[in-house]
Amino acid sequence: MSAVISAQNLNLVFETGDGPVQALKDVNLTIEKGDFVSFIGPSGCGKTTFLRVIAGLETPTSGEITVNGMTPDAARRARAYGYVFQAAGLYPWRTIGANVRLPLEIMGFPKTEQDLRVQRVLDLVELGGFEKKYPWQLSGGMQQRASIARALAFDADILLMDEPFGALDEIVRDRLNEEVLSLWARTGKTIGFVTHSIPEAVYLSTKIVVMSPRPGRITDVIESPLPRHRPLEIRDSPEFIEIAHRVREGLRAGHVE
Ligand SMILES: Nc1ncnc2c1ncn2[C@@H]1O[C@H](COP(=O)(O)OP(=O)(O)OP(=O)(O)O)[C@@H](O)[C@H]1O
Question: Residues lining ligand 1, CB < 6 A?
């Protein structure tokens, strides 16, 4: 009974100039504490919308959703989650340290506590020593790590990540995938992660949610049999290839109308 996020019969319709768009249809999903859940599917299948519903940034048209047993809005006000966007979104006029510190300033943490937390999360994402640099002095991968540090600064139990590594090259992405797994293992956080990449979804997740567009819906939920500790080489194992195959089949099935 440790559901951190529970969605039942969730529907969300956007009214647009071209008529209604059903971004989410009959979504049912339970995310347990400590799960790493990836959302994968083609453009427009509602991945971002679902993450935004969890975050209380979009309101469903019908259905139920709870986050830590509360409404998403109450959970948002209780700072239940950190959110990492597709682009790092760091302020160029603030140093890395000052960017990571920003949510702590807004929340009114005492200065000494801010210092401690900034140091701790920068160490967690292996950016210790970079706090005085400006975003433009860092590589794209490092900027994205800084943005993860900012989302971790106030130590919420839930981390929502919307395609955080989509713009990075494959080598950097592999490295960050390993780091996110290690961070997840060390912190025990519950992670919701949007991706377009099958290997990324299979490598990272305990649960893979396959989605399909028009209307946006869940077509498969795969509980991963892979161990929690995963070296990158696991991607060559038969188990990995089998799960990737199932995801691919799910994506293909969703395309047949
Ligand atoms: N604010 C909005 N107003 C109107 N339509 C919207 C809005 N936000 C999303 N949509 C529509 O809802 C559907 C789902 O969009 P969403 O961004 O959740 O998809 P996605 O799977 O995250 O796509 P991508 O992979 O391209 O980010 C799309 O058809 C999109 O055009």
Answer: 14, 16, 21, 23, 41, 43-49, 216
* Tokens 């292996």 -> residue: 126
Res. 253 pLDDT band, cuts 50 70 90: confident
Structural domains in the chain, CATH included, are 3-80+157-255 (3.40.50.300), 86-155 (no CATH)
Instruction: Name the nearest CA neighbour of 179 among 40, 84, 68, 76.
Output: 84
> For residue 192, what are the CA distances in angstroms to 48, 55, 152?
11, 11, 14
Ligand 1 atom showing the smallest separation from residue 216 Cα: 14
Residue having the nearest C-alpha atom to atom 26 of ligand 1: 43
pLDDT tens-digit series, residues 46-82: 999 999 999 999 999 999 999 999 999 999 999 899 8
Least confident of 2-11, 62-71, 158-167, 242-251: 158-167
Report how far ligand 1's centroid is from the alpha carbon of 83 (Å).
18
Mean pLDDT value of segment 111-135: 92
Which residue has a Cα nearest atom 6 of ligand 1?
14
Closest CA to ligand 1's atom 12: 23
Exposed e or buried b per residue across 28-51, where buried means at least 16 C-beta atoms within 10 angstroms of its C-beta: ebebeebbbbbbbbeebbbbbbbb
Measure 46 CA to ligand 1 centroid, in angstroms: 6
**132-145: average pLDDT:** 92
Q: Which residue's C-alpha comes closest to atom 30 of ligand 1?
A: 44
Q: Does the pLDDT value for residue 211 go beyond 90?
A: yes
